Amino acid sequence: MEVPFRSDPTDHELPQLKKFSSAPIAKSDSTGDSEDSRPSSQEDLASNAQSQHSVLDESSSNSDFYLQENQNHQECQVQDLTELSEEQLMLFPDLDVTEDINDQKKDLGLVEDSLVAQCQYPPLPYLKPATSDDPQAPASNSKYSTELSGYSFNMFETETQASLSGAALTRINKEIKSLSTSLPCEAEGSVFVSMNSKNLGEIYALISGPAETPYEHGLYLFSINLDGNYPNQPPNMNILTTGGGVLRFNPNLYDSGFVCLSIINTWDGDPEEMWNPTYSTLLQVFLSIQALVMDKRVIQKEPGYECYDENSYENQLYCSIVKYGNIKFAMTEMLKNPPEQFKEVVNKHFALKKEEIIKTVDTWLEECPEDFSGAFDDGLISSHNQWTLDEFANKGVKQALKEATDELKVELGNLPVIS
């Protein structure tokens, strides 16, 4: 497995790259379409994912903080568990949380002698209820945001129901409030989430590739499962956009669907990188994948390749593989077979970006090197993406990209014009 967010070791901001915030990108005062009013590049997304963790950093080093937090919030946690939202009670009318409440009271140790023992890191899970002062997604009047912001978070329904504890439901309900207002929705980078109303632990996320990366314009589908022990256990997450298991989009995004990230405890990172039941959230996970995994430094995510130059033949070849898979699977195949929960999103996303997509893929084709000077022999790349290397070897890299691009243009031509 790979270190999830490795960067050039000379980068003075390396520690910040490994810490994430549940807060989204700060809301802009601008309401226009200017570049300053929204996350316009990979660096903007990464900066927001990096910069909002300092308060948690400061507090996590102070054990007195946790003692005070438990003293202030122990009653609130029991109250939160007791007062399930009307939404939850409608979905789960037969839910009995009496046992959970009694267990929570016992765990909280309202007896003073046990309080100090509870204040060890990490503290007991606690999130404040959502308010109008919570961070919101950036305000924008862009055509993309206007057309698609209403689809950022939605519910679907199946016959399958799951048993979740009252504590898990309370936490998930708070995250629903955050997701419904804080998901980014811009042409440069968006996240769409769909949750099963009969089983709140079944979630799908559609993450668009950020601008100026080999993932640009593509839509990547992830499945997320929250078990009854959430948030004490991190979400189980898989990537479903793999071309049927033939393409590995990143050292962290396997062709088998496995997602290797310290923030969901699938890689043994430093303690501050791992899932924290108090502060880590689904929103944080989604933004981390979009901003810090889906970038131009693809092969550098693999241990031992961190110092490779961005323009090295090895990274260029891996990026060409990603571009090929992006066009073939995250765009063309997504258009042909959109996920049921995201059909409207897929059609509008590609219809709105059609001209921009054509310009981008034509540029990729024009800039694609004819010869990768032995990079085909790199053991890592062949072990990750032998199927694509075979395609490149049989057709030539440019010809393979051209065929995929021509197929995409046919699908884009079938889309209606959104006035």
From the structure above, extract its key features.
419 residues, alpha+beta, globular
Question: How is this structure best summarized?
Answer:
Helix content is 42%, strand content 8%.
What secondary-structure arrangement, pairings included, does this model have?
Blueprint: H1 14-17, H2 42-51, H3 54-60, H4 63-82, H5 86-91, H6 98-108, H7 115-118, H8 143-148, E1 153-156, H9 166-182, E2 185-186, E3 189-196, E4 199-208, E5 219-225, E6 236-239, H10 282-293, H11 313-336, H12 343-352, H13 354-367, H14 379-384, H15 386-395, H16 397-413
Parallel strand pairs: 1-3
Antiparallel strand pairs: 2-3, 3-4, 4-5, 5-6
Helix pairs in contact: 2-10, 4-6, 11-16, 13-16, 15-16
Structure description:
The protein has 419 residues and is an alpha+beta fold. The chain has helices spanning 14-17, 42-51, 54-60, 63-82, 86-91, 98-108, 115-118, 143-148, 166-182, 282-293, 313-336, 343-352, 354-367, 379-384, 386-395, 397-413, and strands at residues 153-156, 185-186, 189-196, 199-208, 219-225, 236-239. Strands 1, 2, 3, 4, 5 and 6 form a 6-stranded mixed beta sheet that branches. The longest helix is centred in the last third of the chain and has 24 residues, at 313-336. It is globular and about 60 Å long.
| Apparent shape | globular
Number of strands: 6
The largest sheet, given as strand count, sense and whether it forms a barrel, is:
6 strands, mixed
The SSE string, one letter per element, is HHHHHHHHEHEEEEEHHHHHHH
The radius of gyration over CA amounts to 22 Å
By secondary-structure content and strand pairing, the structural class works out as: alpha+beta
- N-to-C CA distance: 46 Å
Give the percentage of residues in beta strands.
5-15%
Q: Helical proportion? A: 40-55%
Mean of all residue-level pLDDT scores: 76
Low-confidence stretches: 1-40, 48-89, 91-97, 104-132
Given the structure, what is the number of helices? 16
